[in-house]
Design brief:
The complex is a heterodimer of chains A (623) and B (241). By secondary structure, chain A is an all-alpha fold. Chain A has one domain: Cytochrome C Oxidase, Chain A (Up-down Bundle). Chain A has 21 helices and two strands. In chain A, helix 2 packs antiparallel against helix 3 and helix 19 runs antiparallel to helix 20. With 241 residues, chain B is α+β, with helices and mostly antiparallel strands. Chain B folds into two domains: 47 residues; 138 residues, Cupredoxins -  blue copper proteins (Immunoglobulin-like, Sandwich), CATH 2.60.40.420. Chain B is 31% helix and 27% strand. Chain B starts with a helix and ends in a 19-residue tail after the last helix. The chains are: A mainly alpha (623), B alpha+beta (241). At the A-B interface, helix 6, helix 10, helix 13, helix 14 and helix 15 of A face helix 1, helix 2, helix 3, strand 1 and strand 8 of B.
């Protein structure tokens, strides 16, 4: 007993934070490299680098204190209750392992925005290179490295950019829960993301990887050690998707407050729910494919090498079987945000709530049946192409439902044109173009020309940047007053919206034309006849980057140079997350609220407040 | 593509008009927050919306499948004003379709260029692609190392070149002229330079002259070239290029 007490005393005196985590990770990396090189079958260091990255990640998590609790339980040491494991105040809490979903949400938001900056700088470098029709600005090797880093960084970001910050922060608040179902799993789903980003960036030291985000073997087997960054980084993101998916589903299913029936669930939570199903089920396919690729590269199996009996189609199938649900992992939470925000600013109930939920599930379901439309020209199973063409085109039906619900909600409304509402309108416009251009690509005969050209590149930037990132901006302007206690300046916000909207369309619309004029993706050299259009796009993209800088400036200005605090419910919204005080108390609700009405009951003659807070309603008016 | 644009344009204009209309006419006018009418939904409108979008989608799918079946791909593909080929689509690996009258051409991709073998002319391997006009061609696309994609825009052909796979694509050049060949699948650092603007569709007599010249020029090399096969595995892949 004496020993146990002594150890637990000492355990309490080791501060677990980001510094200890990094101090653990660095030697672990070198130990892993040494070990891998000792036992590696090749002299190419791939084994060492992969094991080094995994060791570093594991040590990083241990250094953060992920093992303290399980170890204490294992050894029978006294364990503090969940909520009081560490002090939950001060800036320091953002640099520690925290089990508070609000802290994790903010950690996620900051991390993702920093990653977005790096991904954006990569995009600027790519566009700068394309000012010249030959490879004179960046040599092809560097260009291809930029393509890889920009694409994979952006995929990491967009996989989590809404579910991570806003899902973690808001889902418990919206369903009346005091925490997530599995707080440690939630922390894990965040803390693997920074190592993933760092490991990906480390590819620079190995000369990057030449494959873009698709990582097609045999090119990825031929590539140097930069490819190992892709494998390990993406595996960590797969872990984040699975853990956060399980956690979100468990939370939404089991921790809803009494009275929060499925039909009273905010539509944003439905968006997270469907996303989580996809993330939980799709990411394992990616992990399997990456594991096979790692085996091919280290212990010389040949899953993907046709010359030794494998097939590169195996990768293409596994990758896109993950990859197509993945793109709906990007967009479903964005749908949720748009359908969530529009009723609050239209001051009307969500029009066709149940149809909207069916639409979300329809998209989620159909997303499993379309992956081979990425392989229309690959030569695989041509007789199946009509099926995949049909299933792909069918997705436009549930997607159309999202537009129907939004437009129906706007119909005869009294729209309050705030900055978030502007971004919702921008989303509708951009996603309409993105969606329609997707139908062109779904058609096999048309796809033969457009496949792998700038047309498809413009298509997915319209859906991801014009769709998901516009929804992200709407969410930032809408929810940051609750999350950080300050309103973002609406004046700068309006300038930001129009600037970003015009620059975005000016950047990406010409890319459709460039694609139809036969410019393939991912090339550093192109037909000089297209230089004028490409220069236009590059200049527009600088303006687009400038609009993001303006957003960052708005955040900094509003956080640090405006002293006025946001009131608890600046949008006069009905939904539950706005009924709690700002800043949100540590346990969200003093008592679990009793939900008595839906979140969108605007204008109903005898609508009740959304929840009964057990006699504590008065506390919500405090700032 | 024209059909799709014809269908997409009204949808696009209609939805954009509704967004703009809502933004103008359903804007709040007074300073106070007013609730709108509590409309919860409208079943006939929803059914109509879903029904119409379903009909449009199914119509597009039927037309697409019919186009695929009717080997009329190049016209659907468009390539406005620049198309010189009528491609019959891809029949995939291993299914050698078509009659004996089709010209057999093998497209061999490797980092970072394409070469072509004319099976009917002693398997001669050339560095540019010449095709006789108005004669159906069966392209056999394969790769020696990694995945490439053979893209001849003006012919309406795009077919991935996979190692160990014989990917077949049918095309009938209809006009003489030149076409561009490029790689459409990321294949390493010189992917952007993997292009050849010297593809030609020529008359049958010009083609005969050209191919005879090629056979003569490459006669010495031809002895070292492996005999014609659907695909090749020349070298074990080496890492760390």
């Amino acid at each position: 007993m004496v020993t146990a007490d002594f150890l637990s005393e000492r355990r309490m005196t080791i501060p677990n934070n980001l510094v200890t985590a990094i101090l653990f990770a660095i030697p672990a990396y070198f130990a892993g490299v040494w070990l891998g090189n000792l036992f590696g079958l090749n002299d190419d260091q791939n084994t060492g680098v992969i094991i080094g990255y995994f060791f570093a990640t594991g040590a990083f998590l241990i250094g953060l204190g992920f093992l303290n609790y399980p170890l204490a339980r294992l050894m029978g040491w006294p364990v503090a209750p969940v909520a009081t494991t560490e002090p939950n105040v001060g800036v320091g809490r953002f640099f520690r392992l925290s089990l508070d979903h609000k802290v994790i949400g903010m950690q996620y938001l900051i991390t993702i925005l920093v990653m977005l900056l790096f991904g954006g700088i990569g995009a600027m470098a790519i566009r700068t290179s394309l000012l010249s029709p030959n490879s004179s600005i960046t040599p092809p090797g560097q260009y291809i490295m930029l393509i890889g880093l920009h694409s994979v960084m952006m995929i990491f970001i967009t996989s989590a950019v809404i579910v991570g910050p806003f899902g973690n922060y808001l889902v418990p608040l919206m369903i009346g829960a005091r925490r997530m179902a599995f707080p440690r799993l939630e922390a894990l789903s965040f803390w693997v993301v920074p190592p993933a980003a760092v490991i990906l960036a480390a590819a620079v030291f190995w000369g990057g990887f030449p494959t873009g985000w698709t990582g097609y073997p045999p090119l990825s087997e031929q590539a140097g050690q930069g490819m190992d960054s892709y494998i390990v980084g993406f595996t960590l993101i797969a872990i984040a998707l699975v853990t956060s998916g399980i956690n979100m589903l468990a939370t939404i299913i089991t921790l809803r407050a009494p009275g929060m029936t499925w039909t009273r669930l905010p539509i944003f939570v439905w968006g997270i729910f469907t996303t989580s199903i996809l993330g939980m089920l799709a990411a394992p396919f990616l992990a399997v494919a990456l594991f096979q690729l790692a085996l091919d590269r280290t212990v010389l199996t040949s899953f993907f090498l046709a010359s030794n009996g494998g097939s590169n189609y195996l990768w293409q199938n596994l990758f896109w079987f993950f990859g197509h649900p993945e793109v709906y992992i990007f967009i479903l939470p964005a749908f949720g945000i748009i359908m969530e925000l529009v009723p609050h600013f239209a001051r009307k109930p969500l029009w066709g709530y149940r149809t909207g939920v069916v639409g979300l599930f329809g998209v989620a379901l159909l997303s499993w049946f379309v992956w081979q439309h990425h392989l229309f020209v690959s030569g695989i199973a041509p007789v199946l192409r009509p099926f995949y063409m049909l299933s792909t085109e069918l997705i436009s039906i549930p997607t159309g439902i999202i537009f129907l619900v939004t437009l129906g909600t706007l119909w005869r409304a009294r729209v309050w044109f705030t900055v978030p509402m502007l971004f919702c309108m921008g989303f509708l416009f951009n996603f309409l173009i993105g969606g329609i251009s997707g139908v062109y690509l779904s058609d096999v005969p048309t796809d033969v020309t457009l496949h792998g050209s700038y047309f498809s590149m413009a298509h997915f930037h319209y859906t991801i940047m014009g769709g998901e990132i516009f929804a992200l901006m709407a969410a930032c302007y809408y929810w940051l007053p609750k999350m950080v206690g300050k309103m973002l300046s609406p004046t700068i916000g309006r300038i930001h919206f129009w600037w970003m909207f015009l620059a975005f369309n000016s950047t990406f619309f010409p890319l459709f034309i460039i694609g139809i004029l036969d410019m393939p993706r991912r090339v550093s050299a192109y037909d000089p006849a297209l230089q004028a259009l490409n220069t236009w796009v590059t200049v527009s993209s600088y303006f687009l980057f400038g609009s993001m800088i303006l957003f960052a400036a708005n955040v900094v200005y509003s956080l640090f140079f405006v002293s006025r605090l946001a009131i608890a419910n600046p949008w006069h919204a009905r939904s539950l997350e706005w009924q709690v005080p700002t800043p949100v108390p540590e346990h969200n609700f003093e008592r679990v609220p009793l939900i008595v009405a839906g979140p969108y009951d605007y204008g109903l003659p005898n609508a009740r407040p959304v929840a009964d807070f057990g006699g504590l309603v008065g506390a919500t008016s405090g700032g | 593509m024209t059909l799709m644009t014809a269908m997409a344009t009204p949808v696009f204009i209609g939805v954009v008009m509704m967004i703009i209309y809502s933004a103008i006419y359903f804007r709040r006018t007074g300073p106070e927050l007013v609730d709108g009418p509590p409309m919860l939904g409208n079943t006939p409108v929803q059914v109509a919306w879903i029904g119409i979008s379903a009909i449009m989608v199914l119509f597009l799918a039927v037309v697409g499948i019919a186009t695929l079946a009717s080997s009329n791909v190049a016209q659907a593909v468009g390539a406005p004003g620049r198309s010189i080929g009528q491609s019959g689509g891809q029949t995939g690996s291993g299914t050698a379709g078509g009659s004996g009258s089709e010209l057999q051409v093998q497209v061999i991709a490797q980092q970072w260029y394409f070469t072509y073998r004319y099976q009917d002319y002693g398997g001669v391997e050339t560095t540019h692609l010449y095709l006789p006009v108005n004669r159906p061609v069966e392209l056999h696309v394969t790769s020696l190392d990694i995945i490439h994609s053979f893209w001849a825009y003006q012919l309406g052909v795009k077919a991935d070149a996979n190692p160990g796979v014989d990917n077949i694509f049918h095309v009938t050049p209809q006009k003489t002229g030149s076409f561009q060949v490029r790689c459409a699948e990321l294949c390493g650092i010189w992917h952007g330079e993997m292009a050849d603007s010297q593809g030609r569709v020529v008359s049958q007599s010009d083609f005969d002259t050209w191919i005879a010249q090629q056979q003569k020029d490459y006669a010495a090399i031809q002895k070292a070239v492996p005999s014609y096969a659907p695909h090749y595995f020349p070298l074990p892949l080496t890492k760390g290029s």
